[in-house]
Amino acid sequence: MATMADVARSAGVSVATVSHVLNGTRPVLPHTRQAVLDAVDELGYTPNTLARSLVTSRTRSLGLAVSAISNPYFTEILQGVEASALESGYGLLIADPHDDPRREREAVQLLHERRVDGVIVAPSADPRDLLAYLGRHDVPTVFLDRLVDATAGRAPRFDQICAENAAPTAGLVTHLAGLGHRRIALVAGLPGLSTTSERISGYRRGLTAAGLPHDERLVAHGDSEAAGAERATVALLSLADPPTALVTANNAMTLGALRALRDRGLSVPGDLALCCFDDFAWADLFTPRLTAVAQPGRALGAEAVRLLLERLATPDRPTRTVRLPCAFVHRASCGCPDDGAQPSPPHHRKGTAS
User: Which of 29, 61, 129, 203 shows a CA-CA span of 20 to 30 A to 220?
Assistant: First the structure.
């Protein structure tokens, strides 16, 4: 097995120069660096990662803590994180905190104890223990998808990356209002999450822009999962004056809402128009095809890695909050036919008590 000394002899440089090239600890002239890399390839040299980490205090590994990894949206984020980390020469350790504040802190602590260089976390609705741990141990961190509010108007203590939430949700509402709907409901996510509060804010902004009143009975929390959304949709359908259109605030809740409609023999968009936040691979396979807001999952994951590596390179730079735009994917569940004909106006329908 080739050693670093073998690489140094083959490249005609010192062992220290080989170390600087492989660890990035000091600038090396381009032709010298290339000679070292050529020798590494020729000899099949594999660096001793453990020994290198003892010298550099870095393991070239990152931790990722996100809940519901089976969710297609977070799967896309994971793919973006993994690809970007690998491209930058970093390994990835993954933990699923299951949106439990206690397990969240334990998951990040476990990653930290595995000596990852930094962590990327989608925080829970109550991240106080997590924030205390990260601050106490000065762990380089990027918050992903869900933001943590600044304290007393000060900048956040950690870098953050998420998609736009309010404006895209407002766009769904104004689109439905433009089709003639006046009773537009929202199945919102888990209280306490920034995504939930921002999408509710966007929903209200859309109502205001369309000149529609705010009726708090038309906002029901589905707690960011299918079963909760099914219950929330049933409650909305049971109102004396039920909605004619529905916005669901994530893909899991879209499935729950569709299940509630199916169980009551209601059709989309004939009985209820539907728009959803989160596009997913099979949204185009439903009948009708689902009108949705598509989040840039892979780009969010890649950007989170970039922010974390910049933080590792420059620990004292100011923190940043980065937002990426979403895309409106116009299909037919909103009531706009695929053939481009004018949609039928919404009809009033009495709710069915459960």
Answer: 129
